[in-house]
Structures are given as C-alpha cells and as structure tokens.
Amino acid sequence: MNASFLRSFLFVAAVCVFASLRSAGQQAALPATTEGDFVVKNFKFRSGETLPELRLHYTTLGKPLRNAEGRVTNAVLILHGTGGEGRQFLQPQFAGELFGSGQLLDANHYFIILPDGLGHGKSSKPSDGRHAHFPQYDYDDMVAAHRQLLSEGLGVNRLRLILGTSMGCMQSFVWGETYPDFMDALMPLACQPVEIAGRNRVWRKMVMDAIRNDPEWKAGEYSAEPQQALRTALDLLLIAGSAPLYMQKTSPTRDAADQYLDDYFKTRFAGLDANDLLYQVNASRNYDPSTQLEKITAPVMYINSADDFINPPELGMAEREIKKVKNARFVLIPVSGETRGHGTHTRAVVWKQYLAELLEKSAH
Fold first, then answer.
1. Alpha helix (H) ranges present in the chain?
2. Fewer Cβ in 10 A, N or C end of the chain?
3. Measured at the alpha carbon of residue 95, what is the angle toward residues 93 and 99, in degrees to the nearest 5?
4. In the chain, where are the structural domains located?
5. Is 62 left (phi over 0), alpha (psi -120 to 50) or beta?
6. Helix, strand or coil, per DSSP, at residue 188
C-alpha cells in the first residue's frame, strides 16, 4: 500500500498532520538509510497455505553491534500500522525527534530496522499478481515473517526494543508473548491487548463489506479499482483516524471542512488497491493476546491517547489487561493541542519522555 493510504489512516489526515510538522531544515541529520529485500522460501501461513517466495522489504539505519557472546545489543524494531510501510518513520515528527545525534534512538548508536509488513509496502501483497488468491495472512503470520527477516536475513538474534504503532502496537504484544526472550523492552502505542470487537470490529467490517459488496470488485479480479468501495473505505478510515479537537481547530467553518474533505479524496485515491486494503484490515481477525499476556517478561511501556476513536479510554480495557503483564506501565495521554487522535502514536514529541524512561529501566 502506498504512502497516500498510510497517511489517511496512520497519520490521521495529511492536512492535520503535516500542518504540525517541523520543516525539513529543522530535522536532525540522520545517517544514510539502506533498503533491501529478504526472500523466505516456502513460507507456511497459519491458514495452511504456502507462498513459494515471500518477499520482505526493509529499511535500516545504523549498524548492528555484538557483544563478546555474539549477541546483537543495539537493534531496534519499529512496526507500522495498517496500510503503512517502514519508511513512514523517517518523517520529521518521528525520525526528527528520535533518530538524530544525541537523541533517544540515535542512529549512530542503534541499528534501527523499519520493515514493510507482510501485505504492505514493497513486501509481498495481493496486488503483486495473486489478487484474492493471496494467502489469508494474520498478525501471527506477520510476526513470524519478521522473526525470519531478523534472524535469517539481518542476522539479528536479540532486540534492544520493539516499538509498534496501531497494528504494530498489537503485533508488539504478539511478539512479547510468542518470543518473550527476544527483546529487552516493548513499547506498544495506540491499541488494545484484547480481541477486536465492539465498535472497533464494526467499522473494520464496514470497510471490508464495502469492498466485497461492490459489484466492481468482481471477487478480487477487477481490471479497474472499485471506486465506490474505496470511497466508502476512505470515509470510514478518515473518521476512525480523526482528532476532534485538532480538526475543529484546523477546519473551523463549514466551507473549510468541506474543502478539507474534497482535498482528502483528491490525494488519497491514487495508488489504492482494494485487495491490499481488504487483506490489511482482515489481518486483525484472529488477534487476541489477552489470554497470554502473562507470558510477556520484557518491561513494557504501553501508551494510548485519550482522543483515539479506535481505542477510546472509557472502555477501561487497557488499564485492566496491562495488569496481567509483570513489568508494565500504562500511560493515557490526555487530549491537548499536541495530540492527534489515533495519529498521536507517530508524533514522538508527545510521548518520547516515556521512551526515555523505558530505555533507562531496561538497560543492562
């Protein structure tokens, strides 16, 4: 999925987010990035399906360091959300706050790994050619694929930190339960450690139904994108990712709000693929870490924001479930002029003090 979709969901809405960014000239200088692809042969999915070649694309900054025992000591895995890609974290509001010289995740000292998740970015996905015959992947498959990328593709046998946003937040919990000895610390941002149900499931199903019920979808074998399906999906994604306070401030009149919506659609349709989007949203169907949270042994700093439509604080689930994790802290960021609803997860200036606390607490 290209950057236009990830901005609509992960960055809330481009007008809201980019209006708040610092200029590129203010961004701290970063080391050069390296991009690559790792191919997993005969990758087997939980569904029983197999892909002869699973391509996993990644971007890295910095170099791995090993101790006397050969263990990598400085690797940081950062996981994007639904529809995103690894390079989104090179934006000024994230990389400019964290990766520069002297900053918390200084890329001169850390080996930063920004993968494109299975089904996303330049990794294998339905639009590569298999369309609706692509294997039905889920979050467990995505985590297992990343584990192979790290261990076999990049030679990383230990992670200093896993930081995940939205879908990456949920995958952080899956990582902690499935491979509890692989990381020193976990920082999930903007999710719930429970089955996706209630309103969160309903709006996701509405997106999927809009695609499947559009006659132009043609069971995934369309020659042109189903326009009405994507229009409806983008409507729902905009609402799910919106920040009421900030949107009211930036679109204070009827005409301004109407213009914002018109601009939103003009810039979002290009490059969208209905099958990719359908698979990305459907990947959450089996997620439910709540029954195994006790398996997580790494220190956890878990953060949500109070204006997040997708993870509303009044449900109380975050506070309840995180008690199952032995060494965890939950932080709810109050609504302010600095929060951006669900997109607060990528606005590092709002929460980086908690990252500093986690890194200090988990240091060896």
1. 3-9, 14-18, 95-98, 139-148, 167-178, 198-212, 227-241, 244-250, 254-268, 274-282, 317-322, 352-361
2. C
3. 140
4. 3-199+280-361
5. left
6. strand
**Is 3-199+280-361 a CATH 3.40.50.1820 domain?**
yes
Residues 321 and 192 sit within 8 Å (Cβ to Cβ): yes
- Residues 228-269 have pLDDT tens digits of 999 999 999 999 999 999 999 999 999 999 999 999 988 888
Contact of 159 with 76, CB cutoff 8 Å: yes
Mean pLDDT of 66-73: 95
The set of residues, in sequence order, having a beta carbon less than 8 Å from that of 79 and lying 6+ positions away, is 115, 117, 146, 162, 163, 164, 165, 167, 168, 169, 171, 172
pTM of the model: 0.91
What pLDDT, on a 0 to 100 scale, did the predictor assign at position 29? 75
CA distance linking residue 105 with residue 99, whole number of Å: 5
Return d(Cα 222, Cα 218) in angstroms, integer: 5
Q: Can you tell me which residue has the tokens 């996981």? A: 79
Please choose, from the candidates 281, 196, 197, 195, the residue with its C-alpha nearest in 3D space to the C-alpha of residue 232: 281
288 exposed, middle or buried (CB, 10 Å; 0-12, 13-18, 19+)?
middle
> C-alpha angle with apex 53: 63 to 272, nearest 5 degrees?
85
Residues 6+ apart with CB under 8 A from 116: 56, 57, 58, 80, 85, 86, 122, 123
- CA-based Rg of the chain, rounded to a whole angstrom? 19
Total Cβ atoms within 10 A of residue 101: 12
Pairing of strands 50-61, 33-44: antiparallel
Q: CA-CA distance, 350 to 66, in Å (whole number)?
A: 32
